[in-house]
Amino acid sequence: MSREKYNEKNIVAQLKDESLRAAAFSAIVERYSEQIYRHIRRMVLSHEDTNDLVQETFIKAWTNIDKFRGESQIQTWLYRIAINETLTFIGKNRGSTISIDTPEGAVADKLESDVFFNGDRAEALFHEAVSRLPAKQRLTFNMKYYEEMKYEEMSALLDTSVGALKASYHIAVKKIEEFLKENN
Amino acid sequence: MRLEDYKKKDPFATPEGYFAKLNSNILKATCGNSLPQEKRKKVSLVSRMRWVGYAAMIAIIATVAAGIISVPGTDWKKGNASNEFTAGNTSEYDNSIDGEYIDNMLESYPIDEYTFYCYLTDTDNN
To answer: Of A156, A166, B14, B53, whose Cβ has the fewest other Cβ atoms within 10 Å?
Structure first.
């Protein structure tokens, strides 16, 4: 199914019909896989980890498709799964990912040597600054800064008040600016 | 250094053709079992139709062959050279009479088509 023909209402109806479910899910994958990939990649940085997490996200979505009642948008439902998967992954891999003890510039070095990173040193440092934020704050920053999501949407997704999200974003921006000031 | 000074870019790249492959992998791992089943059904139907076709072809060949063998005078097995068609042996040929044989009979015997039909179907032509 092409993007032009994608119709949320029809897709939700098709998901409820067992004979049309697979085709509807295929359309969802085609429409949202890249968006979900970009969202996760900004959180975990590595292409390989992102690849695994995107697949896990859609596998979970398919497994729990009966629980999707169409009360929220498909995109919101997928984002919730992706966020859970990503935060679980970050939690499990805390030891092997960035910590307060990681030398400044180490993440940027790693990014610059990554064949799937097209940015320069300044961009690598920018992403290092973001990656040093606590996971939930990083999530808030990415959704606001890159995806330009409204606080109300983020609030529904993250079960956090709009006020708390605004504060979190404001603090994240200050931390990033401070890191860049020190490392540029 | 302020955030506004940075150009918002996405420097994260993917291998060429990655998203098509990703989608394919996701579908294989999720509804892949359902999608091919639909395809399998189609293939299976085509396959069944092919076998029906084969069966029909075999049946036609068998019928024609049986017709040829059972026509009086061409009973190679029994070596029966008789061209006679009698009421006594109709039941033996009831299932193997073909149109050509009937035409030959009509030409050989001075009876009209309707009478012959009645004769074959045991109905009264009066």
So the answer is: B53
Which residue range(s) make up the domain with A57?
Answer: 1-97
User: How does pLDDT run along chain B (126 residues), one tens digit per residue?
Assistant: 678 777 788 899 999 999 999 999 999 999 886 664 443 444 444 444 555 666 777 787 877 777 666 655 555 444 444 444 444 444 444 555 566 665 665 566 556 666 656 656 665 554
Q: Which residues pair with A117 in a beta bridge?
A: B12
Distance CA A48, CA B26 (A): 15
Contact B11/A117, CB-based, under 8 Å?
yes
Domains in chain A, number: 2
Are A81 and A55 members of one domain? yes
Last residue of a domain, one of A97, A127, A142: A97
Q: From B25, which residue of chain A is nearest by alpha-carbon distance? A: A55
Give this complex's ipTM. Answer: 0.87
Chain B residues closer than 8 Å to A41 by CB: 12
Q: Are residues A86 and A108 in the same domain?
A: no
Grouping H, G, I as helix, E, B as strand and the rest as coil, residue B14 is coil
Question: What are the chain B neighbours of A115 within 8 Å (beta carbons)?
Answer: 13
Please report, for the domain that includes residue A64, its CATH number: 1.10.1740.10
Distance separating alpha carbons of residues A126 and A111, to the nearest angstrom: 11
